[in-house]
Amino acid sequence: MGKLDINDKDYKEFKDNPNEEPVVMLNLLKFKDDGGEEAYARYAAVVTKMITDLGGRIIFAGQTHELLTGEDRWDSVLLVEYPSRKDFLNMIRSEEYKRAHVHRQEALERAVLYATQGMDLRKI
């Protein structure tokens, strides 16, 4: 599996998950050295509007700084909330998203995308 390839097993689980609650997508991004940030800005300009149009929101977007634990270094972190998994899937299947996604591919050396659900830390 490549550094930007879909994890087929988890994608199928995500797609088949009947949960209709909001989902927060954790994005860890490593930009290409030559023009990566600019290409990602082109992607984000289109996709941010798509997210808000479907009722989602950017919870947090930030640049990384000091790495206090671990070894993997990332340039940026995003937390994006979608109304549901179905809404996320409908967005990424749209022709508008597919056209914008080209810029994401141009921008990133590697990335991680996790689907997350809220939890009560007292019940771990």
Automatic annotation (TrEMBL):
Q: What is this protein called?
A: DUF1330 domain-containing protein
What InterPro entries does the record tag this protein with? Answer: Dimeric_a/b-barrel (IPR011008), DUF1330 (IPR010753)
What highest taxon heads this organism's lineage? Bacteria
Annotated PANTHER family: DUF1330 DOMAIN-CONTAINING PROTEIN (PTHR40257:SF1), PTHR40257
The chain positions of domain DUF1330 read 37-113
List, alphabetically, the Pfam families matched.
Answer: DUF1330 (PF07045)
